[in-house]
Structure prediction request, 665 residues.
Amino acid sequence: MAKVLLIDDEKSIRITVSEFLKEANYEVLTTAYPNEALELAHEHTFDVILTDIILPRMNGIELIRQLKEISPFSEFIVISGEPNVTTATEALRMGVFDYLPKPISSADIINVVKNAYQLKQLKDEKRRLEEENRIYREQLEQMVAERTEKLIQTNKVLEEEIIFRGIIQTELENSKEKLILVINGLPLLIAYVDKDLKILLSNTNFQKFFKSKNVHPQDNNLQDVLGSDNWQRIQNFVNEVLKGKKVRITKHFLLEDDCELLYQVQLIPHKDTKGEVKAFIFLAEDITELSALEKAHTRAQQLEALSLMAEGIANDINNILMVIFGNLSLIKPLNEHFGDISQSIKAIGQAAEKIKELTRQLLLFSWKGPGTLKNFELSEVVQRVVTLTFKNEVLQYRFKTPSEPIIIEADEVHISQAIYNLTKNILQVMQKNDVLEISLDRSRIENETFYDLTPGEYAGIHFYLAREIIKPEEMARLFDPYYRWSKNHSRLDLATVYAVIRNHKGTVFARTQAGQTSFHIFLPYKTFQEMQKTVRDVGPSIGYSHVLVMDDEEPVRDVLGQMLGLCQCEVEYAKNGDQALTLLKQRLIEQHPFDLAILDLFIPGGRGAKEIINEIRSVAPHLKILVASGFHLDNVMTDYSQYGFDGAIKKPFCQEDLMNILYNI
Prediction:
């Protein structure tokens, strides 16, 4: 049975939510005070902790910070009667599972706690497996070290015996051959090095990696074989092992082609009978791909959690913006009569436009497809976006046109936005003499571990800059949500690039090597015949006199009613789908039917436009119906006719937007 801690200073909330959870078979402890919550966390192990943001003597964010130190493996859920983007963002940065606004329904709280508990179970299982894996690897490494040590001891005995028996020389050579066969069969870099750094023995993997052939102790030492760059990275650790200390480190090794690979290295001392180090074993395992896969998995989990929150936040903000834009359009004709106040109204409109753009970025970041997929020529889109990005800039770029058309099936708007975001971020760190090289090609990916891509044909977009513009420590975080590459960059720009490309089953990554920085985008490629485009026949303008507006938020209903009133429309309202159907049927009986309905797509706790469209069509087949939503990327909004709607209108919209769509349906 999962154990839950509920922290809320409202007694009614504690009692209600506690009962919800107990009925769902959860063990629940409650408190109204942060200090008491900290004491309970010391005394009990909680799977899920729910806390309000506003608490006596300590806010919820600070309480979560302290509870994470006591109970780091618990999943946290924030509930608040006054939600805002700042608290939501701060909670997200702290790793909170979800952020719920009050009031909270039983279904919502039970579902969120269930999901949080399932996530905790998965994380617990992951930690258990990682611990088992660590123990296994340590045992394996110890076994390799012990066996290698045993073989070396055997060689030592043979070397001592050779003074007295010439025949032992043959046996010694045979033993060395067996040892080489064993270490050549291991997927490790192995070398046996004496205290003067002479390489006494090495396997083929070691020799191939460092490009050294026929390594012999009389003419090669470890420092020369590794090279100055690699030697500097492990020199201090070699000094430690020569003092008798076993060393285990993770380091990048640089190859001759300036490619870096991540290796886990062990340096194991070999002591003589007096306990003095006479040599050491060099063991190195390539963990580059393993490390990359772990980072990709972690990033995918973070993006999934953030995209869910971004979707909800953006939808709520668009509803609020609907009220702002609607009212601004209503008072726009009166601005000239208010003198200086018209400037304030203009400033409000400009600020709302910025919020609208940020919300659009949030929606694009949370998009999971399929969106509006179509076939288009990729090089034309890339060249157009790059040209527009560099317009009015003194900086230079060179675009290499591919030798053949590269056509993909994707959402052109989203791909264009991703290319723009990436190009804009590169442009903002370019210097006067920099030239950005852009090229496209087709590649076949055969390796399943290549940035987690499915083997097949891919279209590649490559950006090259002959200068290192990314610090090594920034590379792993470059596409993380809310990470800002430089002070001029938007926090969501590169995270949105990553989300859009991954949602198209592609990948994006950056590299820095040989004094050059490059960015690479890979998108699935397939050949096809150009699809015939169909154009919807648009009839003449139609006036509407009786309109049904369905929206769960009263301010949105009010402002939409006023906007329709300016069009001489009689407007009636419904809060949800059931009310809308009842009102529609009643007006049909009264022979005063509606000729237009504007329906909200999502109704929390009730039926929205998608759920009632078929019922409406069955009783009023000729009614013109618009679907409205602040979440623009839902399939209904991008392909409304397939769901039975005559049009779609995206919140927020102004009077002019409304008039345009009414004239065209």
